[in-house]
Fold this sequence. Notes:
This protein has strands at 10-15, 18-28, 32-36, 39-43, 51-56, 61-65, 70-71. By secondary structure, the chain is an all-beta fold. The strands form 2 sheets. The protein has a 5-stranded antiparallel sheet with strand order 6-5-2-1-7, with no helix packed on it.
Amino acid sequence: MASNLRKHQRVQWNYAGNQAEGKIVEKFTQRVTITIKGTDVTRNATADEPSYLIRQDDGDEVLKSGDELSAV
């Protein structure tokens, strides 16, 4: 499922016992490091197991592995 997600698609994931939502901004198919709020976040993405930069409705961004996400 995760490799079928696409840019601009809404997704959700578990966060602190709740569901968080956002929209995919970018898909990564190789190792990526992004600085979010002063902290480097790294994911070891591959073509078979991509990672996604997601913008939440409040404007915050998160970097998630595809297996953490589901389509809304």
